[in-house]
């Protein structure tokens, strides 16, 4: 076996690590007095909104329209499906209407006032699981769920404000590529697996081939209905949507079509065109084959239909003897409907601590991924300011009985990739940093509230195809995934990368196996509902594993090649090429 390995000296590495240690102490969590007591919020506001807001609100172009339509479908479908699951775990106190409303107003508000407009807010599995825990806890305490949920949410908002004012986000600076890659691959895998067929829930195109799948129940009395025909067409729609989107996207660097402008336009509208084409194919060419559609609400009103004026029971499930409901629950939650248990607002502070950890880590890791240096973003970070904004949105949603929204990782990364300009190798050259796409996406979500019957026309298998595209597309820039594929390659055919040139193949595979183990643990924890709320805590555990365990297994130079930023690797290469020269030349 031929191994490409370059020799280097410990002195060189020592100088390099010393320099990088100083830099890390400044950037990755050392106490920064000038950031404390709200100064970080002011600094974030000035360097993002204060400088770039006008430019981000006026840089409209053709790409803006294309990306907005793509992200609209990527936002509204999860809003409806997440809302349906919320209805099940909260006994319909929160449902699809509430999720759509929260997605719309939070997205518009964040597009106008958020500090990092590349981020897309949405529902996530761990936060959904926590809502189910709160519902069960409210029943055990014998207090109304929405009241208890509101108090917990207000405490979470308070903790978010404290975190913002005291710059707790500096802790996220300890996260390195090691943690980012595991988290990014996990989210990509969730989208891919849930599109094709989840082993933990009846979600994905595979489950259409199961006769007992719930999507077949509506046609049980139809003699002409064939679940196999539906399953086969669903498979064609899913894979066709994904394949067409990739094919159209690849035209940008092909010699076909008239000119580069036309090719760029086709690339920008690749996903939207795929959705429209296969929706028409389903409704026109195969109109006699029934495929699953989104289960959208009939009207825009609170999901909970009250049996009586007290609004403690749900119509018609809890009162089948009644012919009609008393009415919908009010939009604004009564904070003092406590059943005489006036201590509940204080007790709510305890579960709010865990909820805060969930929200804080989900947001922080996603922001860290988005702002990676390889993405070439120029408009600055706003960790503390955005923590304040998210806290405010959680407080409002809690008061209105709406779900809490956090940074939606895959949607945010696809937003970033869609706005990015890349070279033929898939590397970022620049990104159109704009607020307009976020604003237009969620304005369309708001408009969809009044056109839910139109949204219902899009087959669910087509949306599975969109999610499959999003998951696969996000794999391309993940070095962890690249190293996983190297398990199946001849070592002498490994691509030329710092970790293949300067790290022994066995050590590289050992590092990948550690990441793979953490990835599998995270996937199973996320998928098992009773323990899903521990998901971000395990993500956070990746940070001390990297800081304290990996240095005992790998040398400093190996960790530079496997986990270092491009600038650190380039600096090492420069120093290694000048052995014997003045080592104090390192600028830290």
Verbal overview:
This protein is mainly α and 588 residues long. Helix content is 59%, strand content 3%. It has helices at 10-27, 39-47, 49-58, 62-89, 96-113, 125-141, 145-165, 177-196, 227-249, 260-268, 270-285, 344-347, 349-370, 383-400, 409-419, 436-448, 452-455, 460-473, 479-485, 498-501, 505-527, 535-553, 556-563, 566-576; strands at residues 121-122, 305-306, 327-328, 406-407, 420-422, 428-431. A two-stranded antiparallel sheet has the order 1-4. The chain is globular and about 80 Å long. Mean pLDDT is 85; it is low at 1-34 and 578-588.
Q: Which structural class is indicated by helix and strand composition?
A: mainly alpha
| Shape, per Cα inertia axes | globular
| Straight-line distance between termini | 39 Å
Flag low-confidence runs: 1-34, 578-588
User: Helical proportion?
Assistant: 55-70%
Output the number of helix runs. Answer: 24
């Amino acid at each position: 076996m031929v191994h490409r390995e370059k020799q280097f000296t410990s002195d060189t590495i020592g100088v390099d690590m010393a320099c990088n240690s100083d830099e890390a102490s400044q950037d990755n969590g050392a106490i920064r007095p000038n950031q404390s007591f709200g100064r970080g919020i002011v600094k974030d506001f000035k360097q993002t909104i204060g400088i770039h807001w006008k430019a981000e609100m006026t840089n409209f172009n053709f790409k803006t329209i294309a990306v907005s339509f793509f992200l609209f479908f990527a936002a509204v479908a999860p809003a409806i499906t997440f809302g349906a699951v919320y209805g099940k775990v909260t006994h319909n106190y929160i449902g699809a209407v509430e999720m759509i409303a929260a997605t719309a107003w939070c997205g518009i508000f964040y597009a106008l006032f958020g500090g990092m407009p590349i981020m897309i807010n949405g529902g996530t599995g761990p936060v959904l699981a926590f809502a189910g825990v709160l519902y069960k806890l409210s029943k055990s305490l014998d207090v109304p769920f929405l009241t208890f949920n509101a108090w917990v949410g207000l405490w979470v908002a308070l903790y978010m404000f404290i975190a913002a004012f005291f710059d707790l986000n500096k802790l996220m600076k300890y996260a390195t590529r090691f943690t980012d890659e595991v988290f990014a691959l996990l989210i990509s895998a969730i989208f891919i697996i849930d599109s094709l067929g989840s082993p933990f829930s009846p979600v994905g195109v595979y489950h259409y081939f199961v006769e007992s799948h719930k999507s077949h129940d509506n046609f049980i009395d139809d003699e002409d209905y064939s679940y196999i025909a539906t399953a086969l067409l669903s498979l064609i729609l899913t894979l066709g949507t994904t394949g067409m989107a990739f094919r159209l996207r690849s035209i940008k660097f092909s010699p076909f079509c008239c000119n580069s402008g036309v090719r760029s336009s086709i690339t920008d509208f690749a996903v939207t065109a795929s959705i429209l084409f296969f929706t028409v194919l389903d409704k026109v060419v195969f109109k006699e084959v029934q495929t699953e559609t989104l289960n959208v609400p009939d009207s825009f009103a609170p999901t909970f239909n009250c049996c009586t004026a007290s609004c403690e029971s749900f119509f018609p499930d809890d009162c089948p003897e009644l012919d009609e409901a008393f009415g919908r629950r009010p939009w604004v939650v009564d904070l003092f409907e406590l059943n005489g248990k006036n201590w509940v607002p204080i007790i709510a502070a305890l579960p709010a601590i865990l909820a805060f950890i969930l929200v804080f880590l989900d947001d922080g890791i996603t922001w860290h991924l988005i702002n990676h240096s390889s993405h070439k973003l120029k408009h600055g970070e706003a960790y503390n300011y955005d923590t304040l904004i998210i806290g405010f949105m959680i407080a409002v949603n809690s008061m209105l009985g709406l779900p809490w929204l956090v940074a939606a990782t895959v949607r945010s990364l696809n937003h970033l990739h869609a706005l990015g300009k890349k070279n033929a190798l898939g590397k970022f050259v620049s990104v159109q940093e704009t607020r307009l796409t976020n604003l237009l996406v969620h304005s369309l979500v708001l408009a969809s509230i009044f056109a839910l019957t139109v949204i219902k026309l899009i087959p669910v298998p087509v949306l599975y195809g969109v999610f499959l595209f999003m998951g696969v597309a996000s794999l391309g820039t993940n070095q962890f995934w690249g190293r996983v594929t190297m398990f199946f390659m001849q070592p002498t055919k490994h691509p030329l990368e710092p970790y293949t040139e300067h790290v022994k193949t066995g050590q590289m595979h050992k590092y990948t196996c550690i990441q793979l183990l953490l990835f599998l643990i995270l996937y199973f924890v996320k998928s098992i509902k009773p323990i899903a709320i521990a998901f971000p805590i395990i993500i956070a555990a990746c940070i001390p594993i990297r800081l304290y365990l990996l240095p005992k297994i790998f040398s400093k130079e190996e960790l530079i090649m496997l986990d270092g930023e491009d600038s650190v690797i380039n600096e090492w290469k420069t120093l290694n090429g000048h052995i014997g020269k003045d080592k104090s030349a390192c600028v830290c």
